[in-house]
Specification:
With 595 residues, this protein is of the alpha/beta class. Strand 7, helix 16 and strand 8 form a beta-alpha-beta unit. Helix 6 runs antiparallel to helix 9 and helix 14 crosses helix 15. It is elongated. It has a 6-stranded mixed sheet, sandwiched between helices. Strands 2-1-4-5 form a 4-stranded antiparallel sheet, with helices on one face. It has 19 helices and 10 strands.
């Protein structure tokens, strides 16, 4: 259990002085509490004696008031030192976890759902904070308080103290058993909570799909089942607590019965004073808290260990794509070349890319055409090492891309993926995501190139219109064009377009491409598209099938290969355009006749 807490050692070391100060304050509080019954005993024995003056009891009463004041001040300061330290550790752990997650490669996110990661970053981190805060306090308090009370009780009357602590070993055994049970139950609760969070996240993120297929009831039932499972797991833990704490109180009550029995007998035989009985009773009442706190401590420590294990699973996962230990000092620049590249996705038995070799001269444009699943997107992801090709396959300026730092390598590229992701911000903020300091003139130029200027009147608040989560308020074409503008803003040396204009109409696409060709003159561009009209301007085009390059050349060369895939697709698209044009002409004639 405690091995999981090794992860926290750097944080605990950083705040060691706060914890030391908190412990000292805590010990002072415990000492004050243990001393009060001692003065209470002296006061009661004085009163029971009968012949006393008021001044005889004033002094112990004043001392008890001062001790109570010391306890109050001490409680304030141990909370000040330890609680603040635990809150800071919580914030640092959450920062550390989030930073680590951002470093992970794509494979990590295929294995871990968003909902589960959110549960770990919120619920689990909060549990760790409780372990480093109140868990630590109850552990230290329980140890010192128990030790001080036992010493005071045996100093008062060793024979009676020996009888009344008989139930304590049983309480200790129950606490150890309780800790093991709680640890397993809490691990189950956290796992269920992660699944529940994931169902909620997916349902809300895909709410448009849910509504379009009228699946609200299905997802509600799915959430309800998981929520019920979570409730039942929580209730199992509550029932365990419901049995444990009353039973501990019962065993503590047995100690009171033993005190009255044996302590009363000792008073009858003048081996104890009435004040000693009252003091022993006070000690027993105080001893209930350490006993209860032991269970509380075990609970929090077990829960913290379970949460830390889940956090350590993430922190212990290394990114699949690692920085090279022998990095070059040169900046990535120049021709891009892929040499004899094979690639298989983790868990797959088939190669996604087979013997891919292609050269992309600097300031040229490469077009890529292929069937669905032929490896087009995979090639694009290889260039900025979003997928790792390994050494000896991708070269930039004659230098292996693995020798560049990931930050410098990826800064070379601007990428527009197939699925355009927008943040829940304004259109302007999404476009200026990676380049906040551009001029208004450059901003206007970029939105014009991306074909967004014609849509400005459709946005209620202009460029300051909030797009909603994942751009839910926009059309597919608008999202693609915003993503394109976002990539163009940084003016990347290499622009990667992964079917980035698939959701726009042919006329808009033609206008964007014309402006894009002028913008990208003298810069490297790689375009994946299923439209021949998009690819025809490329300096070189490759055609993929089954992960292999089956055709390569210019538009004219590929069109000359009449039996080739490229020429067949071009013919089909030409036929489609002619059919659409004929339909439009027929519609116009029909309107004229009706008129």
């Amino acid at each position: 259990m405690f091995k999981e807490y090794i992860t926290l050692l750097p944080h605990l070391k950083q705040y060691k002085y706060r914890y030391i100060a908190g412990i000292l304050c805590l010990i002072a509080v415990d000492a004050g509490q243990v001393l009060i019954p001692r003065y209470l005993k002296a006061t009661i024995d004085t009163i029971v004696g009968g012949s006393f003056q008021l001044g005889d009891i004033v002094q112990p009463l004043v001392i008890m008031v001062l001790l109570a004041l010391l306890i109050s001040v001490g409680r304030f300061f141990w909370r000040y030192f330890i609680t603040i330290a635990s809150r800071r550790i919580e914030a640092e752990m959450r920062d550390r976890l989030f930073s680590h997650i951002l470093m992970m490669s794509g494979g990590f996110f295929r294995k871990n759902t968003t909902g589960d990661l959110m549960a770990r970053a919120t619920n689990d981190i909060s549990t760790i904070r409780q372990a480093t805060g109140m868990g630590f306090v109850s552990l230290v308090d329980g140890v010192f308080m128990t030790a001080m009370i036992l010493v005071a009780m045996f100093a008062n009357n060793a024979a009676v103290a020996a009888w009344i602590i008989i139930p304590l070993p049983l309480i200790t055994a129950l606490i150890l058993l309780f800790g093991k049970i709680v640890g397993k139950m809490f691990k189950r609760i956290q796992d269920i909570y992660g699944r529940l969070s994931n169902i909620a996240q997916e349902s809300l993120a895909g709410v448009r799909v849910v509504k379009s297929f009228v699946k609200e009831h299905y997802f509600f039932e799915k959430f309800e089942v998981s929520n019920t499972e979570y409730k039942n797991a929580i209730m199992d833990l509550v029932k365990t607590f419901g049995f444990f704490f009353p039973f501990i109180t019962f065993l503590s009550g047995l100690s009171t019965v033993l005190l009255i029995l044996f302590g009363g007998n000792a008073v009858i035989h003048n081996r104890m004073t009435p004040g000693s009985i009252i003091a022993m009773l006070s000690y027993l009442e105080m001893l209930v808290w350490p006993m209860m706190s032991a269970g509380f401590t075990v609970n929090i420590v077990q829960r913290g260990a379970a949460s830390l294990k889940r956090i350590n699973e993430i922190l212990g996962t290394e990114p699949e794509i690692q920085e090279s230990t022998r990095q070059t000092a040169q900046k990535p620049r120049g021709d891009i070349e892929i040499r004899d590249l094979d690639y298989r996705y983790p868990g797959s038995d088939t190669l996604s890319l087979k013997h891919i070799s292609v050269k992309i001269p600097e300031a040229s444009m490469l077009g890529i055409l292929g069937k669905v699943g032929s490896g087009k997107s995979t090639i694009l992801k290889m260039l900025p090492r979003m997928l790792d090709a390994g050494e000896g396959h991708v070269f930039i300026g004659g230098i292996d891309s693995c020798l560049f730092s990931l930050k410098e390598l990826r800064a070379l590229f601007g990428m527009v993926p197939q699925e355009s992701f927008l943040f829940s911000e304004s259109i302007r903020d999404n476009i200026l995501f990676s380049a906040r300091e551009i001029s208004d003139e450059r901003f206007d130029e970029v939105v014009r190139i991306a074909g967004l200027d014609r849509d400005l009147h459709l946005f209620p608040n202009g460029w300051n219109t909030i797009v909603g989560e994942r751009g839910i308020t926009l059309s597919g074409g608008q999202k693609q064009r915003i993503a394109l503008a976002r990539a163009l803003v940084i003016d990347p040396p290499v622009l990667l377009l992964d079917d980035a204009l698939s959701a726009v109409d042919a006329e808009t696409e033609e206008r964007i491409l014309s402006a894009l060709l002028r913008e990208r003159r003298g810069k490297t561009t790689v375009i994946v598209s299923h439209r021949i009209s998009t690819l025809r301007n490329a300096d070189r085009i490759i055609v993929l099938d089954g992960g292999e390059i089956v055709q390569s050349g210019t538009h004219e060369m590929l069109m000359a290969e009449q039996e080739g895939f490229y020429a067949r697709i071009a013919a089909l698209q030409q036929l489609e355009q002619e059919s659409c044009a004929a339909c439009e002409d027929a519609g116009l004639k029909e309107e004229a006749i009706d008129g």
